[in-house]
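Me: I keep going back and forth on a fold encoding question. No explanation is needed for now; the record alone will do.

Assistant:
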Amino acid sequence: TGKGLEWGGSLIRPEATGFGVVYFADEMLKTKKQSLEGKKVAISGFGNVAWGAAIKANQLGAKVVTISGPDGYVYDEAGVKGEKIEYMLEMRSSGRDKVKDYADKFKVKFVEGKRPWEEKVDIALPCATQNELNGDEAKVLLKNGCICIVEGSNMSSTPEAISAFTDAKVLFSPGKASNAGGVATSRLEMSQNSMRYNWTSEEVDQKLHNIMINIHSACVNAAEKFGTPGNYVNGANIAGFLKVADSMIDQGHV
């Protein structure tokens, strides 16, 4: 999957993981009777996931104030939006792998050699790499009032960070649930291929949104059923295990 459009690829596949992360965050916030509207968001990375997350966060009314790279991070008080999001594509295709290029072009703050988790934000979306958010950084996020952390990269948070978030009872989602939008849209691509049909961007986006709503519900319901309401780590692990276990039982593998 992830083919070119002329070979049966799906629209919005490049953005899909980031879109899914933001849809999942929005569902989490709804459990607290909140939304993304007006929230300040820190995103790490500037690749496909960060790019998609920045697009969808803006669409849902949030302000994205950071992106990052191997050289450090930028803080853009005016918000990463419009032509700035498009410039993320130029940065990626340049091969330079330097987020400082953004700071130089748009005249914003650049912090060398650090990650964006020291900034005061409402929502943190780690979208760069594994173990990119450690225990000390988690404590800083919590101290600064961050209420929602949603993983876009695989295993973004270290065990110490996860413990800090779960102990503080803030909204925290592991990547195995919240970054499923990419593989979900690969499934949608395969469906289109099987039917010899091409859905519009709006159709794919709506189907992706519904998938992320269903994944969120599965996590919430599993966590509540097994005695840890609100714990998305347990909910994601249990829901995933049960899906596989029930399928094995149905097929007689017991």
The first helix runs from residue 16 to 30.
